[in-house]
Design goal:
The chain is an alpha/beta fold. It is built from eleven helices and 13 strands. Bound molecules: uridine-5'-diphosphate. The site of uridine-5'-diphosphate (UDP) has 13 residues, from helix 6 and strand 8.
Length: about 350
Amino acid sequence: MRVAVTGGGGFLGSHLCEALLRRGNSVVCLDNFSTGKPENIAHLKAYPAFEFIHTDVSTAADVPGRLDAVAHLASPASPPDYLRWPLETLAVGSRGTENCLRLARRHGARFVLASTSEVYGDPLVHPQDEGYWGNVNPVGPRSVYDESKRFAEALSAAYRRTHGVNVGILRIFNTYGPRMRPQDGRVVSSFITQALSGEPLTIYGDGKQTRSFCFVDDLVRGIVAMLDSPEGGPLNLGNPAERTVTELAELVLGITGSTSELQYHPLPVDDPARRRPVITRAQDRLGWYPDVGIEEGLRRTVEWFAARPRDVAAGAAAIRGGQEDGARAVGAAGPAAESGL
Ligand code: UDP
């Protein structure tokens, strides 16, 4: 099987490329490194079955030769990233997705869309199953990500109905693990970076909001199962074990042995209050279930971060800088503070 992975230089994408190569597939990785990093895939160049194409799929997604599947992961996915690159985020979710669907259609390939739990917005139904249509603010700062992924789902569904493309939609919930960037701005990478640097852990809001965190190896197993399946979805992929942000901070402090204090910051605009996936569909249709608990997953992630002290120190400084920058990066202050325009 020869698989194209868009966003293959990113956190999730690079793990997916690796998993596919390890089981003997050929992989064509497409990335423009807007949020991915060449270091994430440097070790994959040792595989003769690995190819890399430097491209922005919003502009072009062409792969010469045979192709059996396309996994479309390319997109900024961290809130500070998509708030920094709103137009690029909309472009890759819309034009980028269409270019990748056309690619899959030309090759008669399976197409798997990496959508997101953000399609549920700030959910009014808890936990979230795939039948829930969501509660999304279409003009708030997060809308660039939420709506582009909702559009990507609509476009993928239309390509399935209109052109018979073998489309599968995955809604990926919060995922963490090695290769997250220390300065990424997401909660797990930020807390680990801060704890290892002796900096305060920055809690947004009162810390009572919840997320359900899935270890990257589990998640990637689910994406591979979806690539192998004719299932259309949408299917939720995530770990249903739900934690408050404060509980996560305490877990990170315990695992790192850090004495960092907790520091409270304003809550970003439209930050979802609760999030937990119902995963019975993925369980029934893909036979998929996450194995790695949060303590074990965090331990493995902390180990990876701790082995990169220079990156962690630089990441801690960048996070501090971003926050001193008026919380603009999280949409918590200034003109972005309101849910409207
Ligand atoms: N968060 C936090 N401190 C941080 C980064 C994030 O308290 O330094 C919170 C954020 O407000 C949200 C949750 O942690 O409620 C998860 O945020 P993340 O950016 O990881 O992902 P999201 O689920 O919001 O896309």
